[in-house]
Specification:
The chain is an alpha/beta fold. It folds into 3 domains: 18-23 and 247-345, Rossmann fold (3-Layer(aba) Sandwich); 35-124, Diphthamide synthesis DPH1/DPH2 domain 1 (Rossmann fold, 3-Layer(aba) Sandwich); 133-243, Rossmann fold, CATH 3.40.50. The chain contains 11 helices and 14 strands. The chain has helices spanning 12-18, 38-47, 64-75, 133-142, 161-169, 196-199, 216-224, 245-258, 278-290, 322-327, 339-345; strands at residues 30-33, 51-55, 78-81, 103-107, 121-124, 148-153, 174-176, 207-211, 229-233, 238-240, 264-270, 294-300, 315-318, 336-337. The strands form 3 sheets. Strands 1-5-4-2-3 form a 5-stranded parallel β-sheet, covered by helices on one side. It has a 5-stranded mixed β-sheet with strand order 7-6-8-9-10, with helices on both faces. Strand 6 (148-153), helix 5 and strand 7 (174-176) form a beta-alpha-beta unit. The radius of gyration is 21 Å and the shape is flat. The N and C termini lie close together (8 Å).
Length: 360
């Protein structure tokens, strides 16, 4: 685990705890495609799969039926649509959800290299051809951003990174990208739980640009890097001003402070393969009990706030997706901390520097 610039070193036992990762294992084969089209159909026919489960992210559920029909007509395979929208590449259908399918078609995400999957998978990254790099570069220059910029992007817009880098270089700007850890498939890639491609270059840049749409990734990035984070929408050619990182962090620190008197903890663990950190959950329970606190593990798949209502605990610590605690805190009746925040609350880590719960 790499500390942010200027951070004090973690105590060895805390560093070992926060570096715990989902267990690696062998996965069936995977194929990666830019979009739904003939190369995907040919690969499915070539491999001889006769039954497929199609999973789409929430933003594409309206298109799921048409996509299923295209797959069925082009390949001759039986196609079942997974009813549960996915949150990311960590959240693919289990064997039970796959309804007897012998392969998966997963839209909108790249593979996570160190997460085992139950079935052969066709990843369709839905790479977007939208966005004019020259116009985007002009927008960045006109906004007066610093000359040394770091960039991360959602998977759909990674093909723009090279042309945008060149367009900015012609205007006297340096755009730098980094290579993340084993959870990221590509340089400059961002995941909601992992921004190591950004932290790898944070000391060499003055600000970051997120290339993509929405606020989900910029908020995560702002928690990780102590640099201004701008959002550049390649489809609308708009640049949003930097997020207020200080306000985001202070809100979390105040929540941590509220939990310092908590005596009974619920430790949430996910059974999703890409989020399953049972060893970490067990270690957190042990840390709590060693300090005379009570702690129990709560196992879940897709966490619903209603599942935690009425629990006789003072606070929860979430070892599943870190964004559950950071983005949805107001949905829970009890405080919800990440593992680093839990260590802050029980006195094993200082409040500063703030540490994002990175999945490695």
């Amino acid at each position: 685990m790499t500390d942010p610039p200027g951070a004090a070193s973690l105590p060895p036992e805390a560093a070992a705890l926060l570096d715990r990762v989902p267990s690696e294992g062998a996965s069936p084969p995977a194929w990666v495609f830019a979009e739904v089209g003939p190369p995907l159909f040919e690969a499915i026919r070539r491999e001889g799969f006769r039954s497929l489960v199609l999973q789409v992210p929430a933003g594409l559920v309206r298109n799921a039926h048409d996509l299923a029909a295209r797959l069925r007509e082009a390949t001759g395979a039986r196609v079942v649509v997974a009813a549960r929208p996915c949150f990311g590449a960590c959240d693919f259908p289990s064997r039970d959800e796959a309804a007897g399918a012998d392969a998966e078609v997963l839209l909108g995400h790249a593979p996570i290299p160190n997460v085992p999957r139950p079935l052969p998978a066709f990843f369709v990254e839905m790479r977007s051809a939208g966005g004019d790099p020259e116009a985007l570069a002009e927008t960045v220059v006109r906004a007066g951003l610093p000359s040394r910029l770091g960039l991360v992007a959602s998977i759909q817009h990674l093909d723009l990174v090279g042309p945008l880098t060149q367009a900015l270089a012609r205007r006297g700007r340096t755009l730098e990208t980094g290579t993340g850890d084993r959870r990221l498939a590509y340089p400059a890639q961002a995941l909601g739980c992992n921004y190591t491609s950004a932290s790898a270059i944070a000391e060499r840049v003055d600000a970051f640009v997120f290339l993509g749409t929405g606020r989900f990734h910029p908020i995560g990035l702002a928690f990780v890097v102590d640099r201004p984070v701008y959002s550049l929408d390649p489809l609308q050619n708009t640049l949003d001003p930097p997020l207020d990182r200080g306000a985001l962090v202070r809100r979390r620190q105040l929540l941590v402070a509220r939990c310092r008197d908590a005596r009974r903890w619920g430790v949430i663990v996910s059974t999703f393969a890409g989020q399953d950190r049972r060893p970490m959950a067990a270690a957190l329970v042990a840390r709590a009990r060693a300090r005379g606190l009570e702690a129990e593990v709560f196992a879940t798949t897709r966490l619903d706030p209603g599942d935690l209502e009425g629990r006789d605990v003072d606070a929860f610590v979430n070892t599943a997706c870190p964004r559950i605690a950071l983005d949805d805190a107001e949905l829970y009746a009890r405080p919800m901390l990440t593992p680093p925040e839990f260590l802050m609350a029980i006195g094993e880590l200082p409040l500063e520097p703030y540490r994002f719960d990175t999945f490695h």
